[in-house]
Every structure is written in C-alpha cells, then in structure tokens.
Design goal:
The longest helix is centred in the N-terminal third of the chain and has 15 residues, at 20-34. 33% of the residues lie in helices and 11% in strands. It has helices at residues 7-13, 20-34, 48-52, 89-101, 114-117, 143-157, 167-171, 204-214; strands at residues 39-40, 60-64, 121-125, 130-131, 162-166, 183-187. The strands form two sheets. A four-stranded parallel beta sheet has the order 3-2-5-6. Strands 1-4 form a two-stranded antiparallel ribbon.
C-alpha cells in the first residue's frame, strides 16, 4: 500500500503511519495481494477522500462504513461510485431525499459524488478497503483506528464542522466529536432496510446549508 496523501492531511496525520497498527495493516494488505485477493478500491484511490477534500477545506463529514465490494464501484469516497456504474440503492435513497429537501434538485444519471467532495464534503468510510465480493472483510484490521484518528483530528483542530451520521454505526462515532464546537446531524441510514424509519424526511442537506450559512461559510451546491 503506497501512501500518497495530500500535504495538509499528511501534516496532521503523519504520526499515524509509523504506529504498530498501521504497519500491521500494510502487512495485511500486502498479504491479500500476494495471495491473489482482489481488493477495492484500487491502490491509487484508497485515500481519494483525503486527496479530493483537503484538510483545510473540510466543512462537512459524511461517514460511511465500508467501500462497495463490487467490481469498479468503490473509488475512495463514501456512498459514491464511479461513472458508468449502476447507482447503489442507498445512494438512490439519498437522491430521493435530496429531491424533497433541496428545491429543484434533479436526480443525476450517475452516482459519482466528487462534486460534493471538491466543495469540502469529506466522504469518509471507516474502513478504506474491502476484499472483492466480501463485505466487511477488512474491518478490524486497523483502518478504524486510523479513521477514528481522522475524526478526532478534525474535531480537535477545526471548528463548526457538520458531521452527518446515518445509522447506528456512524452514530457510534459521535463520542469522538466535540459537540460544543461542531454540529452533528443524526438519522436512520439511507439503506433500503432503514430509510423509511427516519432517513426520509430528515432533511440533512438543507440543515447542513443552514448551519454553514450561520457559520459564515459557503453553502454546498448539492446538485451534481
């Protein structure tokens, strides 16, 4: 695993890469490759969330759990897929909520969320890699320790960040966030199994923009 991290992130996270958990994680990923396992996303996209949304630019964090495990889906941004790939069901539900939450939002023909990332929305998965066809296969290998540190670093070093936590797993990370300095929007997950139980109607996108406006920050154009 080659680590190619944007300089502003490298500055605040550099101490992590020499820690035991990260050394073990690199060894695990090397072993996966040597035993012929297909791992997503591709090496160059593992840190895509950081390289697209620089530390200095983060305004919003949307936390996911695992990369997509299907061919050519994952590209390092939570909930996002590459153009030309069918839009996953959770993202379809996100688009449906956007349609009712944001005036004139039109559902795009693809699921690539890079335009959000470029505006300061960090699309962070708790686990940054996965074995093809095997959801959760790279959990508890060290990634969560790294991404927990990312969340804590954002909380400690920045102010007025909007954290969007969908579902129980994402909401378990709230303990890492200083709610006196930041804003947390909680709701059910957009998955087809839970979207009807509190995701639909939660209006996270307009609420985020209301907060950003009050904080004197540029709002997010959610239209892709």
């Amino acid at each position: 695993m080659a680590i190619e991290l944007e300089p502003s992130w490298l500055e605040v996270l550099k101490d992590e890469f020499g820690k035991d958990y990260m050394i073990k994680l690199k060894q695990f990923l090397k072993q996966e490759k040597e035993t012929g396992q297909v791992v997503y996303p591709k090496n160059g996209n593992i840190f895509n969330a950081f390289n697209t949304t620089h530390f200095d630019d983060v305004k919003v964090v949307i936390l996911g759990q695992d990369p997509y495990h299907g061919a050519n889906q994952a590209h390092g941004l939570s909930f996002s897929v590459q153009k030309g790939i069918a839009t996953p069901r959770s993202l379809i539900n996100i688009y449906k909520e956007l349609q009712t939450d944001i005036p004139d939002f039109k559902i795009p023909a693809h699921g690539n969320l890079e335009e959000w990332a470029k505006q300061g929305v960090l699309l962070l998965n708790a686990t940054l890699t996965v074995r093809a066809g095997s959801p959760g296969s790279h959990q508890k290998r060290g990634w969560e320790e790294f991404t927990d540190e990312v969340i804590k670093t954002i909380s400690d070093k920045k102010e007025g960040i909007v954290f969007i936590l969908w579902g129980a797993f994402a909401q378990s990370k709230a303990v890492l966030i200083d709610e006196k300095k930041h804003f947390i929007l909680r709701s059910a997950h957009p998955s087809p199994f839970s979207a009807e139980r509190g995701f639909f109607g939660s209006k996270p996108f307009s609420k985020t923009n209301e907060i950003l406006e009050k904080e004197g920050k540029k709002t997010i154009d959610w239209q892709i």
